């Protein structure tokens, strides 16, 4: 079975639609590991789009938790500004949907979850003391990588919608459970369409400047 694994969409419908166009008919199941919502201008549209796709499994990220609680617990000024602007745009009809998202999901010999103990794990994070007994796939840190510790594989899908290194690059994985392989994949999308929509939606300057300050593959 081929499984498409992605997450950290963050309201980026442009990247999401392109993913399903690229991988059309190439997978048997998809798993979204959370953080569909917030930041980008199409949270509701992304939830609607994904609900129309077949053979999907949905996991809950920290941003789904924030949306259910309608509260951002952090102190980061940029993140708080995004949340304060985006949460009023959220359609409450999706509350039952995201409430049912699972915490983790297993495919083949891999466990998929949004994060391990809520930690941001990067390419250079010390993972020797992390609690993962299975081959594990996570997201959350928006950085794609493959690492090995004590014979166990740790993959990060990277972010589909908000790559913090190169904002116009979308990351995801394909897991083949029969071949026991994981392929790290990516594509480039038009980030200007996202920023233009944010401008039309009158996002606060602090939010727009955050996106405009990020590097892109063409910058």
TrEMBL record:
Signal peptide: none
InterPro entries, alphabetized: Ap4A_hydrolase, Calcineurin-like_PHP, Metallo-depent_PP-like, Pesterase_MJ0912
Database matches in PANTHER family: BLL5683 PROTEIN, METALLOPHOSPHOESTERASE
Domain of life: Bacteria
Name of the featured protein: Metallophosphoesterase
Ranges for domain Calcineurin-like phosphoesterase: 1-102
Annotated Pfam families: Metallophos
